[in-house]
Specification:
27% of the residues lie in helices and 28% in strands. By secondary structure, it is α+β, with helices and mostly antiparallel strands. It has two domains: 2-259, 2-enoyl-CoA Hydratase, Chain A, domain 1, CATH 3.90.226; 273-419, Immunoglobulin-like (Sandwich), CATH 2.60.40. Strands 6-7-2-3-4-5-9 form a seven-stranded mixed beta sheet. It has a six-stranded antiparallel beta sheet with strand order 14-15-16-17-21-20. Helix 3 (78-89) runs parallel beside helix 4 (105-117). The radius of gyration is 23 Å and the shape is globular.
């Protein structure tokens, strides 16, 4: 029997799990994997796909308007498809952006090594081709993705994720950027051992098959640790993965990304981008300096076109230290104009990398031409003053680039006008 034993694909248990409802879904799906074919069929429902994407200037980062999109799960054959895609399209030096819930560990490591071999840059973002905007999985969308031609697309890091095996692939890139709004989700690997018949082998027990499976499991864990070292990632990354049960997920903090050596780029803001599902909203996610120790937390600005002829500026920010919002002044300065937000805060979005940190939201209504004037400026300053501007007040200033904003706001305003 042992001679017929085959080491099955090494997989992470979260391969079928979305970023929300993670633990509950994993507990429902994990027991369904009783044969190798079960795992293969589940992964094949959303296989990892690659296509070329193109957006406006600065749409995917400084100096970036073209990129490779990688969406789906790391299924069997992903690495071979990736190598074939690169040979067919010859994308040059453009970066690749992942959005994935995970998949097979060995496929992820193979893709990571291909990226290292080619000295590729990688990051995390959701890519939405215009041709796929209404029916993301119809025949026309699939045909366009396979065409090899760059597809006009929207790039956004807002709520993008690279979970489980995806993070393992990502660290293979020579340069890595986890833009604000995106996150790497980690959990411990679940290693499956299969007989050649496809039947799963349980590693528990005292039998020979169980002992052989434990041996293979140890080999898989050693391969992962060796791969991370090969890619120059600190041992804390794999250790952190192993601390999270495989049917749960935890998102790495900005500090962990730097400490483990995953992202030390220092890029603290995204390009101006569209908000998913809201054509009238232009959005930028940024990292604010929120403490004397240099710590940073995620916040974002939204410019919203309204049909009434007025528009809105929305600012969502983390509470700073013991700041609960009361008595804090928030202003946005662009050229000679200063926009002062009302003093009232209310709680809003939960940041998955810091689930216990409260987020506060402010909104100001302004004439639409004022937004256009703001967008025409090359930059603006976000000014946060604690203690209501008293003698002991401390003002934190975050400078924000407006590169690409003017054209994006025109597009949003046109959409708003068409709706009216």
């Amino acid at each position: 029997m042992l001679a017929r034993m085959a080491l099955g694909r090494i997989a992470l248990a979260g391969v079928l799990v979305c970023a929300t409802g993670m633990a509950a879904l994993a507990q429902k799906t994990a027991p369904a994997i009783s044969r190798k074919s079960d795992l293969q069929s589940k992964l094949a429902k959303q296989p990892l796909t690659f296509f070329l994407a193109r957006g406006p200037e600065e749409s995917c980062g400084p100096g970036c308007r073209e990129w490779i999109a990688a969406d789906g799960q790391f299924d069997e054959g992903s690495a071979a498809r990736f190598r074939a895609f690169l040979a067919r399209t010859r994308p040059g030096t453009i970066p690749i952006f992942f959005n994935s819930n995970g998949g097979l560990q060995e496929e992820a490591m193979a893709i990571g090594r291909i990226m290292r071999e080619r000295r590729m840059r990688a990051g995390i973002a959701v890519t939405r081709p215009q041709v796929c905007s209404r029916k993301p999985h119809d025949a026309a969308c699939d045909t366009a993705k396979k065409s090899g031609r760059p597809l006009a697309s929207e790039w956004t890091s807002f709520d993008a994720s690279c979970n489980s095996a995806c993070g393992i692939a990502l660290i293979g890139a020579t340069e890595r950027w986890i833009p604000p709004g995106a996150a790497i989700g980690i959990h411990s690997p679940a290693y499956y051992c299969f007989l050649r018949s496809g039947r799963i082998v349980i590693p528990k027990g005292s039998g020979d098959l169980a002992a052989q499976c434990r041996k293979f499991t140890a080999q898989g864990a050693a391969q992962l640790a060796s791969y991370a070292r090969e890619m120059g990632i600190g041992p804390g990354y794999v250790a952190a993965m192993n601390e999270v049960p495989h049917n749960e997920v935890r998102y790495l903090t900005r500090k962990e990304l730097a400490t483990f050596g995953i992202d030390r780029s220092g890029i603290a803001e995204t390009p101006w981008m569209g908000k998913p599902g809201a054509a009238q909203v232009t959005l930028k996610v940024l990292l604010e300096a929120t403490g004397a120790d240099g710590s940073q937390r995620m916040g974002w600005l939204e410019l919203q076109c309204n049909e009434s002829g007025s528009s809105s500026i929305v600012f969502v920010r983390p509470a700073i230290g013991g700041d609960g919002g009361a008595g804090t002044e928030v202003a946005l300065q662009a050229g000679e104009r200063t926009f002062i937000f009302p003093p009232k805060d209310f709680s809003t979005h939960r940041n998955p990398t810091e689930p216990d940190a409260p987020y506060l939201r402010r909104k100001i209504s302004v004439p639409t031409p004022d937004i256009a004037a703001l967008a025409a400026q090359p930059q603006m300053d976000l000014r946060i003053t604690l203690d209501g501007g008293g003698a002991a007040a401390k003002t934190q200033v975050t400078r924000i680039s407006n590169a690409g904003l003017e054209q994006r706001w025109k597009t949003a305003a046109q959409s708003c006008g068409e709706k009216k």
